[in-house]
Amino acid sequence: MRKKIDSYFGFAKKSRNLLSGYHTCTYGIKQGKIKLLILTEDLSENTVKKLAKLSEDHGVPVRIYGKTEELSKITGSQERGVFGITDVNFADVILKELDRE
After folding, report:
1. Average pLDDT of span 43-54
2. Residue ranges per domain, the chain?
3. How far apart are CA 29 and CA 55, in angstroms?
4. Which of 100, 51, 53, 55 is nearest to 80 (CA)?
5. Which CATH architecture has domain 2-100?
6. pTM for the whole thing?
7. What are the TM regions of this chain, as residue ranges (predicted)?
8. Buried residues in 58-92 as b, exposed as e (16+ CB within 10 A)
């Protein structure tokens, strides 16, 4: 299951449907571009609360998945713990896989 989700992250990155980083994702949510927000398990509680509130206000689903180091490695980012999926289809597939776990 985990490999499947990791593959979807890689595909989303290659197709430019993945945003990463706190400020980039905050801006993306406000602009209505992000369809799914993924936060890593090791983010600070305060960051999770702020982003969860912002996402809720804009109707964006939020899920907690993986560790910062793992997802940064998969996506080619450096120490990022906040990821936004901008494509509806990728968001749906990843959401289904995450909810299945």
Report:
1. 93
2. 2-100
3. 7
4. 51
5. 2-Layer Sandwich (3.30)
6. 0.89
7. none
8. eebbbbebbebebbbebbebeebbbbbbbbeebbe
